[in-house]
């Protein structure tokens, strides 16, 4: 019982997710800044941002729906945090059963869906456009992302366990682009395109509510990288896990640095007509046992 | 893919950002910084005060004072150009860190 | 399906200066747009009238921070033609030198912003880093990075010496290589092309009708550049206007890059063939010009043709009317924005390189009818007459 609580709250649960998630974001900003030939913020900057936001007040506009404004960030954050339970981070698994892949998929969708709902709840035109884009993007990347998870899941009994799956390159590609889409990282930072729609769904958010979304984002970052490291790169122990997740982080940074933002229509086409079919090829290969 | 090559190269190179307060920039010769006045050569001809586009310079001939409002000065250097003395009595120095607490500190007055 | 109104500005992350564009949006497609100016009125034209001619030079410089050298050069050129004097040859060359350096930095700024608007921060940072080279050259030559105060009535203020020439040549060589690198990225990088190719299209026919100026019209294939008239030293430098084809955002960007290279070539040539003479005529601080004389002076600023109309009122101007390039270019905005999506709005807006600071005029809103009207001096005089009569 005590061990379970420790795992849920400290490692690999909430506290570890909190620290490492923000740390990953900090590393990403720092390395991306160096790639852009500038100094960039210190690595602990996301922590400072988070605590600053916590100390600020919640501002609510007249047009917004009050209870949703508070509810959405909490559910969004809680659902990504729950995913941690099913991922054996660095060999420390908490709950594992056949079919946990589907639970993970559902919780991840829930997080994005509530982000979109949060945008509609503010009644801001930028928020609405951002939410429409968030939903469109969800519909786009979910297909290849789910296919890639099912491909590997088929071989592991739909359970998230360490599995090295680079002989399914398309599934890995689909997973990677799915992660980019889920986290709204370039080139898929469409829902929160700063130059077009200010901050998308988060335009009207401030204070602790925004801090909650930031936290959800950081933990989502950590969770998805962990899934990649464990489920696709087969990290069974702590060293492998660290190496794999940092390598994945570096790949994500490269994506962030060299690509311009896609249009939402481009993104849709890319996911459904290019990455999706490729992922299906790998799924078929897994089903017929040709690998 | 050119962009990727440069990005990878830059990970290991020193950022091009200048860490300003610690690292001072190199000021080229002829930089137009804060205006400075030479009391020994000035003949109080009023040319600089009259020609100043923003009327930042005021001169009191009787009391022999020369004053400038740095808040108004636009650093165009026209006072230096029109000064008739040799060597010039009004010069642009190389001082550029001019921030102060309080507007009244921008009013600089010099006595002969 | 009904459309809705998406406000773009006056406060928006994609805008550096305040302007308000009301976008009629259907889903993600723009079906109409309306431009609302008036957030940046500074009353500069009026303040010219209370200043001596020579003091106006510094005021005209402050119309715009990015093309200050063009404003002063145009203003001084006008006064010189009113006075009937010709500036020394060396001064002409130095004016060209400063102008072309400023054109490079202005174009790099515009293109960097295009890169930022498509969400590619890296390219933006690289371009702005390289822009520092030009800024340093400007500081070296004129003593300041932005407001040069280099042009005075009757010539220029400072000379170029050998040491400076060497430094300029060195920096320009580096820059030229970078221009090729960036042009390659704009042309060939798939993710950049995806965002700027076939966007914001302005056909040759429409360009002729709406008549924008500067790189915007040249990108549509119309050869219109004031520098071809050969004012200052452009005749001797064998200037040739850069034109493009197709007139989309990519083409407008490429025309700007090619213009940068052309500027570099001209600076090299100007430094080689710099004639030896005085740099300025001796003009007294207070100039008296016969009242009622008028003139039109024009130069090619980075954003296009810049026109000053001046009428003398003795030792001060009676009227200075400025037509900035962006004012003329804004007419095409609705044409090039309609039919494209929200993601393309910032890119298209950045690609015409707008400068609101130069452009804003006074707008009066009638409270009863909510009708807006741009007020000119002529109208104000009429209002006065109406009230008196």
Question: Topology, pairings included?
Answer:
The complex is a heterotrimer of chains A (291), B (112) and C (389).
Chain A: H1 2-9, H2 14-35, H3 45-54, H4 66-83, H5 100-122, H6 125-156, H7 169-182, H8 194-197, H9 207-232, H10 238-258, H11 264-288
Helix pairs in contact in A: 2-9, 2-10, 3-9, 4-5, 4-9, 5-6, 6-7, 6-11, 7-9, 7-11, 9-10
Chain B: H1 2-11, E1 35-37, H2 47-51, E2 57-60, E3 65-69, H3 78-82, E4 90-92, E5 107-111
Antiparallel strand pairs in B: 1-4, 2-3, 3-5
Chain C: E1 4-8, E2 20-26, E3 29-36, H1 44-48, H2 53-61, H3 68-83, H4 89-117, H5 121-142, E4 151-152, E5 155-156, H6 162-188, H7 190-196, H8 204-210, H9 215-218, H10 249-272, E6 294-301, E7 304-313, E8 316-323, H11 325-329, H12 333-337, H13 344-351, H14 356-359, E9 363-365, E10 372-374, H15 377-388
Number of domains of chain C: 2
Instruction: Compute the average pLDDT of chain C.
Output: 82
Order of helices and strands of chain B: HEHEEHEE
Overall geometry of chain C comes to globular
Overall structural class of chain B, as computed from helix and strand content, comes to alpha+beta
- Assign an overall shape of chain B: elongated
Biggest chain contact: A-C, 28 and 32 residues
Look at the structure and give the CATH class of the largest domain in chain C: Mainly Alpha
Largest sheet of chain B: 3 strands, antiparallel
The CATH superfamily of the largest domain in chain C appears as Cytochrome-c3 Hydrogenase, chain B
Protein architecture, described:
The complex is a heterotrimer of chains A (291), B (112) and C (389). Chain A is mainly alpha-helical. Chain A has one domain. Chain A is built from 11 helices and no strands. The mean pLDDT of chain A is 85. Chain B has 112 residues and is an alpha+beta fold. Chain B has a single domain, classed as 2-Layer Sandwich (Alpha-Beta Plaits). Helices cover 18% and strands 18% of the residues of chain B. Chain B has helices at residues 2-11, 47-51, 78-82; strands at residues 35-37, 57-60, 65-69, 90-92, 107-111. In chain B, the strands form 2 sheets. Chain B has a 3-stranded antiparallel β-sheet with strand order 2-3-5. In chain B, strands 1-4 form a two-stranded antiparallel ribbon. Chain B starts with a helix and ends with a strand. The model of chain B has no long low-confidence stretch (mean pLDDT 84). Chain C is an alpha+beta fold and 389 residues long. Chain C folds into 2 domains: 44-359, Orthogonal Bundle (Cytochrome-c3 Hydrogenase, chain B); 361-389, no CATH class. In chain C, 47% of the residues lie in helices and 14% in strands. Chain C has helices spanning 44-48, 53-61, 68-83, 89-117, 121-142, 162-188, 190-196, 204-210, 215-218, 249-272, 325-329, 333-337, 344-351, 356-359, 377-388, and strands at residues 4-8, 20-26, 29-36, 151-152, 155-156, 294-301, 304-313, 316-323, 363-365, 372-374. A 3-stranded antiparallel β-sheet of chain C has the order 1-2-3. Chain C has a 3-stranded antiparallel β-sheet with strand order 6-7-8. Chain C has a two-stranded antiparallel sheet with strand order 4-5. In chain C, strand 2 (20-26) and strand 3 form a beta hairpin. The longest helix of chain C has 29 residues, at 89-117. The relative contact order of chain C is 0.18. The model of chain C is unreliable at 362-370 (pLDDT under 50). Chains in contact: A-B, A-C, B-C. The interface between A and C is medium-sized, with 28 and 32 residues.
């Amino acid at each position: 019982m005590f061990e379970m609580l420790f795992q849920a709250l400290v490692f690999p649960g909430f506290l570890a997710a909190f620290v490492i998630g923000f740390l990953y974001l900090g590393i990403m900003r720092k390395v991306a800044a160096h790639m852009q030939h500038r100094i960039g913020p210190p690595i602990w900057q996301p922590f400072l941002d988070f605590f600053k936001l916590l100390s600020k007040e919640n501002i609510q506009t007249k047009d917004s729906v009050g209870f949703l404004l508070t509810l959405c960030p909490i559910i969004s954050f809680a659902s990504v945090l729950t995913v941690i339970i099913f991922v054996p981070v660095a060999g420390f698994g908490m709950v594992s059963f056949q079919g946990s892949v589907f639970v993970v998929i559902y919780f991840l969708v829930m997080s994005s869906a509530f982000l979109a709902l949060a945008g509609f709840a503010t009644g801001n035109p930028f928020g609405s456009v951002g939410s429409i884009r968030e939903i469109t993007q969800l519909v786009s990347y979910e297909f290849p992302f789910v296919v890639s998870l099912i491909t590997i899941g088929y071989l592991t009994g739909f359970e998230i366990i360490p599995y090295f799956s680079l002989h399914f390159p398309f599934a890995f590609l689909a997973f990677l682009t799915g992660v980019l889409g889920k986290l709204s990282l370039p080139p898929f930072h469409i829902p929160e395109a700063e130059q077009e729609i200010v901050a998308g769904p988060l335009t009207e958010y401030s204070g602790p509510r925004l801090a909650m979304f930031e936290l959800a984002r950081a933990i989502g970052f950590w969770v998805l990288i962990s899934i990649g490291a464990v489920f696709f790169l087969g990290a069974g122990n702590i060293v492998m896990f660290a190496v794999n997740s940092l390598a994945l982080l570096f790949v994500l940074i490269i994506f962030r640095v060299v690509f311009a933002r896609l249009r939402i229509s481009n993104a849709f086409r890319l996911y459904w007509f290019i990455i999706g079919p490729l992922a299906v090829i790998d799924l078929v290969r897994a089903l017929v046992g040709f690998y | 893919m050119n962009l990727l090559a440069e990005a990878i190269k830059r990970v290991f190179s020193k950022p091009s950002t200048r860490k300003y307060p610690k690292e001072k920039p190199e000021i080229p010769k002829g930089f137009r910084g804060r205006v400075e006045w030479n009391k020994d050569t000035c003949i109080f001809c009023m040319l600089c005060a009259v020609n100043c586009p923003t009327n930042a310079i005021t001169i009191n001939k009787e009391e022999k004072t020369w004053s400038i409002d740095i808040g108004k000065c636009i650093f165009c250097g026209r006072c230096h150009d029109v000064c008739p003395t040799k060597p010039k009595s009004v010069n642009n120095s190389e001082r550029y860190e001019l921030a102060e607490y309080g507007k009244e500190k921008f009013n600089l007055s010099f006595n002969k | 399906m009904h459309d809705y109104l998406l406000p773009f500005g006056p406060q928006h992350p994609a805008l550096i200066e305040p302007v308000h564009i009301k976008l009629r949006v259907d889903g993600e497609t723009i079906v109409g747009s309306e431009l609302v100016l008036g957030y940046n009125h500074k009353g500069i034209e009026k303040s010219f009238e209370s200043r001596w001619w020579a003091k106006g030079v510094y005021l005209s410089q402050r119309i715009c921070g990015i093309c200050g050298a063009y404003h002063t050069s145009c203003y001084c050129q006008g006064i010189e033609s009113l006075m009937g004097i010709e500036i020394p040859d060396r001064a002409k060359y130095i004016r060209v030198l400063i102008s072309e350096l400023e054109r490079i930095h202005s174009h790099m700024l515009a293109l960097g912003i295009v890169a930022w608007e498509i969400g590619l921060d890296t390219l933006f940072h690289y371009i702005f880093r390289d822009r520092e080279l030009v800024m340093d050259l400007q500081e070296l030559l004129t003593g300041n990075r932005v407001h040069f105060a280099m042009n005075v009535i009757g010539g220029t203020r400072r000379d170029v010496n050998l040491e400076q020439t060497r430094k300029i040549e060195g920096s320009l060589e580096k820059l030229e290589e970078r221009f090729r690198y960036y042009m390659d990225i704009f042309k060939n990088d798939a993710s950049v092309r995806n965002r700027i190719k076939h966007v914001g299209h302005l056909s040759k026919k429409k360009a002729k009708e709406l008549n924008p100026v500067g790189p915007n019209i040249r990108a549509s294939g119309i050869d219109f550049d004031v520098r071809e008239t050969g004012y200052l030293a452009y005749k001797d430098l064998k200037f040739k206007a850069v034109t493009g084809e197709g007139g989309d955002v990519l083409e407008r960007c490429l025309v700007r890059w090619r213009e940068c290279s052309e500027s570099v070539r001209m600076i090299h040539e100007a430094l080689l063939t710099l004639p030896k003479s005085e740099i300025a005529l001796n003009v007294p601080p207070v100039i008296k010009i016969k009242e009622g004389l008028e003139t039109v002076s024009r130069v090619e600023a980075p954003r296009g043709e810049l026109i000053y109309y001046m009428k003398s009122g003795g030792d001060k101007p009676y009227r200075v009317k400025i037509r900035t390039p962006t004012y003329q270019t804004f007419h095409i905005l609705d044409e090039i924005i309609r039919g494209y999506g929200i993601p393309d709005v910032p890119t298209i807006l950045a690609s015409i390189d707008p400068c609101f600071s130069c452009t804003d005029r006074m707008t009066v809103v009638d409270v009863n009818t909510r009708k807006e009207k741009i007020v000119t001096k002529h109208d104000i005089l009429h209002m006065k007459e109406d009230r008196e009569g």
